[in-house]
Amino acid sequence: MENSNDQPLKALKTQLTEYIELRTEHARLGLVESAAKVTAYLTSAVIIVLLIMICLLSLVVASSFFIGQCLHNYGLGFLISAGISLLVLLLFIWLFKKKAENGIMNKIIQLTNEQQ
């Protein structure tokens, strides 16, 4: 003989199990969406950075030939361009590295927290 309290407890157990399954699925889907957003952002950022690097490389090569033609020595033109590039790199590392890292971290955190 079943107790009259068994039916509501079974229904509650079924509802609780279903609720836990739905919450788990919701959390999983949220993680998948966040990962997809971060991956899409990083992929587009990498593509943009590569295109900018190609443009800058072309400008450096063109300026190297121009400086070399003006000085009648292409090797010296490339050496001067390399020195300028090295100075720009050192200035970036010295002045902007920490700001750039913090900006990238904040953007990734923002992208992952948009779902919540």
Structure summary:
With 116 residues, the chain is mainly alpha-helical. The protein is built from 3 helices and no strands.
Structure explained in plain terms:
This protein is an all-alpha fold and 116 residues long. The chain has a domain at 34-113. Helix content is 91%, strand content 0%. The protein contains 3 helices and no strands. The protein has helices at residues 6-71, 74-95, 97-113. The longest helix is centred in the N-terminal third of the chain and has 66 residues, at 6-71. The chain is rod-shaped, with a radius of gyration of 29 Å.
Chain-wise SSE layout:
Elements: H1 6-71, H2 74-95, H3 97-113
Rounded mean pLDDT score: 88
* Approximate shape: rod-shaped
Order of helices and strands: HHH
| Largest β-sheet summary | none
State the oligomer: single chain
Total strands: the figure is: 0
Tell me the helix content. over 70%
Straight-line distance between termini? 48 Å
- Taken as a percent bin, the fraction of beta residues is under 5%
Structural class: mainly alpha
Low-pLDDT segments, ≥5 res: none
Describe the structure using short key phrases.
mainly alpha
